[in-house]
Structures are given as C-alpha cells and as structure tokens.
Design brief:
Elements: E1 19-20, E2 24-26, E3 31-35, E4 50-57, E5 63-67, E6 69-71, E7 74-78, E8 84-88, E9 93-98, E10 104-114, E11 117-120, E12 124-129, E13 137-139, E14 146-148, E15 153-154, E16 158-162, H1 169-176, E17 186-190, H2 213-229, E18 232-236, E19 247-249, E20 252-255, H3 257-260, H4 277-280, H5 282-292
Length: about 290
C-alpha cells in the first residue's frame, strides 16, 4: 500500500477563488496561483485520495490544464560547522504554476476531485504581456539542436553538479555563482540519492508516496538561484542507487541503500519486497507515476 489511506473529510470540499501572485505576468514567466481548499487529506500526495489541478483559458478559447501540488514554505539555518537544517514555517496549501504561451487575458479555475466527487472554483483573470526573454527551450524543428521559443539557438555548456554536501542549498549557491562568468549555462542536478533535494526516502519526514516538503522547498531555492543566474537545469529525476543492496565507490563499500535509504522497501514501510518490483509490479509503477505527477 502506498502512503497513508485515511481520508479526513467533513462533507464535500470547497475551493475558493484562485489567489494570484500577480495580475500581470510576461509570457514564459511563472505565475503562481494558490487554491484555498477546505478539505484535508491523510496523504495529500496520494492520487487515490485527492487530485488538484487547474484550467487556464486564454485568447481565442485556448485551454491548458496543469496539475496542482501541495506545498509548505520553510526557512533554513546553518550551524558553526556549516551544516544546513530546514524547518517548515507555514501551513500546507495547494498551488498551481503556469507560464502563459501567448499574450492576452487569461482565466484560471481550480479543480478538486476526491471520493465525494468533483468541484470547481470560480475563475480569476490575469493579463499575459509580451515575453521579455527568449522563451522556453525546445528542439529546433527538423534538427537535433536546441533553440528558444523565439528561434534563438541554445548551445548547452555545463557539467554534472549532482548533489550537495552538508551545506545544503548554500553548497549549490556557492557552486553555481561563478558559472555564468565562464560561459556555463547548464547544470545537471540530481533529485534522488541526495538528502538535500530528494523528496522521497526512508526518514521521519518522508516515506513511500509521502514526500519531504522541506526538501521540496529546497528544490525551489536552487531553481530560483539558477533562474537569477541564467543557468538552465537538467534534473536527474531518478537513479538506481536507492535500489542497490550495496553501493561501492572507488572499490569501497560506502552504503546499503535498499536497507537504509529506500522508502519503497517493505522493511521501511513501503510496498516492495525486492528492488526489482519497482519495475515489475503495479505498486512500483504507481510510485513512479505519483512522484512524477
């Protein structure tokens, strides 16, 4: 069984008017929308309990659907040895994030689906203004190369930063800061096998299908740093290490991830008896889908 299954509901949920971080946003930039939702759930990440999303309707009736996610703000501090700790400082809330593809007036409605049915919020409007940058990166039509939405070529130059040490977000900030001056515009960053940014592992704040919101907040901080510096991010969403019984580095045994780290191991409260079941069972596949949703 994935995560918690108890659902705490008092009647059907209600969704208030979407709360927009901005009423005007350039095309291609992220608009954050908070959805005031009355219901609470035993595991807000379990799609069997609740699914939250939004519908964005733009000029000419163009419609885009996006998934919502559960979020808590946090703050970080470091001790005298530079070891970072993160503490959640807000109540949980539901958010949507959206980048308008074209200028004009857009409307957003929130949607919630759970065991009691489906409800929609009233719409809220915002204005998408012309883009101030090059736009999103895509593959240039008919080629093997990258370009921005406005046709400007994108040549990725970067390296594998991977994961932080004990400094946490501060490590990434220190490593990323010098990159633009030497022409680096891309960083590969791992979201697994990394206690700073991994949201699903065996520990007090996480488990199978139950995610560490403090680390999710850290991911946001790293992305904000990259955005400010103009460094694009290539995320490694998963890796084989958590499913290894023994992990060796330079010929030395350094960890036993399946036993000590992996939240999916039945011995750690997960649904899988063997590492291979992550790929061969319905429970394993649902864990993948849920984390990517």
């Amino acid at each position: 069984m994935i995560g918690l299954v108890a659902v705490m509901l008092v009647g059907a949920p209600t969704v208030g008017e979407p709360q927009l971080a901005r009423r005007s946003v350039p095309c291609g930039e992220c608009l954050e929308v908070r959805l005031p939702l009355t219901a609470q759930y035993g595991n807000p990440f379990d799609r069997r309990q609740v699914e939250v999303g939004g519908e964005f309707r733009g000029p000419g009736g163009e419609t885009r659907r996006v998934g919502g996610f559960y979020y808590q703000a946090a703050q970080r501090s470091s001790d005298n040895a530079g070891r970072e700790s993160v503490e959640l400082v807000s109540e949980g809330c539901w958010l949507l994030r959206f980048a308008a593809p074209r200028p004009g007036t857009w409307q957003v409605r929130g949607q919630v689906r759970d065991s009691t049915g489906e409800v929609w919020s009233i719409p809220a409007a915002f204005e998408a203004t012309p883009a101030t940058g090059h736009g999103v990166i895509r593959r240039a039509a008919g080629t093997r190369y990258f370009e921005y939405a406005d046709g400007t070529p994108f040549y990725p130059i970067g390296h594998n930063i991977a994961w932080a040490h004990q400094g946490g977000v501060a490590d990434f900030e220190r490593w990323l800061a010098p990159l633009p001056a030497v022409g680096v515009n891309l960083a590969r960053i791992w979201l697994q096998w990394d206690r700073t940014l991994s949201i699903e592992y065996h520990g007090p704040r996480s488990g199978a299908g139950r995610y560490d919101l403090a680390n999710a907040w850290r991911v946001d901080q790293v992305l904000a740093t990259c955005r400010r510096l103009g460094v694009k991010v290539f995320f490694t969403l998963d890796s084989p290490e958590p499913y290894q019984r023994e992990h060796y580095w330079l010929g030395k045994l350094t960890a036993r991830p399946w036993t000590d780290f992996c939240a999916h191991n039945a011995a750690n409260g997960g649904p899988l008896a063997e590492p291979r079941e992550f790929y061969t069972t319905a429970a394993g596949r649902e864990l993948i889908r849920q984390r990517l949703a």
